[in-house]
Every structure is written in C-alpha cells, then in structure tokens.
Amino acid sequence: MPPLLPNLAKEFRDATGQNSKGIYLDSKLTWCKHVENITNKATKTLAMCRSTIGRNWGLKPKEWGLREHQKKWRTRKKKSDCRQTKMMLPSIRNKAWNFIQNWTRRDVMYITQILTGHACVNKHLKEMGFADTKACEHCNDPIESIEHILGDCPKYNQIRVNIFGNNIILAKHFWELNLRDLVKFFKKTKRFSYFE
C-alpha cells in the first residue's frame, strides 16, 4: 500500500473508525463497516417499533379511511344533516349497495326516498313549500315523515303487522329492517302511488 493511503485513512477517521460525516471506514477504506452499522441501527429500530406496536402494524389506508368516514358520519355539524339516512343506515359499513345495485329503477327510487326522507310526505313537502302543514292527514300526528309512516301511523298498522310482524316499529330498530321489506311496505301503503 502506498504510504499516502494509510495516512489519509488515519486522518479521515477518529479512534472509533467514524469520520466527521458519520461514515465508517476500515483501514482499507472499504464500506463494509459502514453498511454493517447502518443495518444494525435499522434492525434495532425495527425491533423497538415492533415491540411497541405489536405484530400487525403499519398504515392500512382503507381501514383508516373507513374509520375517519364513520367518525364524520356520526358527528356531522348540523343536527339536521342526513338525520333520516343516519337513522336508517347508522354505519357507513352497510351492505345496502350490494342489495340494491340489481334492483329495478322503480325499487331504487322507493328505497332512496325511504332512506333519505326525501319523499312526498308532508314534512318534506312543507320544507320545500309544497304543503301547508307537516301534520299527518290520517292521524293528526304533528309530523308526517317516513319515520312516522313506517313506525307508528295507525292507518298502516295492519300492513306493518303483515310485513314486519309488529304494529309499531321504533326508529332505533329501522336499520335492522330488510330493504326489500321496506320497499314492499311502502308499495302496500300506496304512499308513492303517484309514480305507478
């Protein structure tokens, strides 16, 4: 080895073998020591992360996105935001789309009105300026809504019993109802007969 090379190596590194830039070199100026040190650091860091986080760790974008979407769905700013839809579909992880994607247009129209509350019921018609009152014309309940018709309007008790097995359905149980049965119920009530 020429005399200049060992002198350069000596000047390049301190007593630990590391130079001022954090690079490790041996007496032959090879990178082996440097690569070994970096690999050891990475292995130790990975082991610490794994022991802290557990076996299954790492970002799962789909799960994170669904969790964030559900959080925003539950905590919408206005109380009136999607109230009807949240009552019918409290979780964004529902299978509604799987059920309705092969339905007829008419049935999709029915289920959309039922799930959103955007239907020809006095509550919605009054909000749009097409009705004088929100009250139910059959039982004088102060608000005629999808919730009222589906849940407890006495005019539809028998239909409710025939389809759902009960004459009153609480709003907190709407999400448990079969979507096909919901459409069947509203078809029997003839509430949307103007589309027939």
Structure summary:
The protein is mainly alpha-helical and about 200 residues long. The chain is about 50% helix and about 0% strand. It folds into two domains: about 5-55; about 80-195, no CATH class.
Quick tags:
196 residues, 2 domains, disordered N terminus, mainly alpha
Could you explain how this protein is built, in words?
The protein has two domains: 4-53; 78-195, no CATH class. It has 196 residues and is mainly α. α6 (105-116) packs across α10 (179-189) and α9 (157-164) packs antiparallel against α10. Helix content is 51%, strand content 0%. The N and C termini lie far apart (98 Å). It has helices spanning 4-12, 32-53, 61-74, 83-88, 96-100, 105-116, 122-128, 146-151, 157-164, 179-189.
Explain the layout of strands and helices.
Elements: H1 4-12, H2 32-53, H3 61-74, H4 83-88, H5 96-100, H6 105-116, H7 122-128, H8 146-151, H9 157-164, H10 179-189
Helix pairs in contact: 6-10, 9-10
Share of residues in strands: under 5%
The domain tally reads 2
In total, the number of strands is: 0
Distance between the termini: 98 Å
Instruction: Note the total helix count.
Output: 10
Radius of gyration, taken over Cα atoms and rounded to an integer in Å = 34 Å
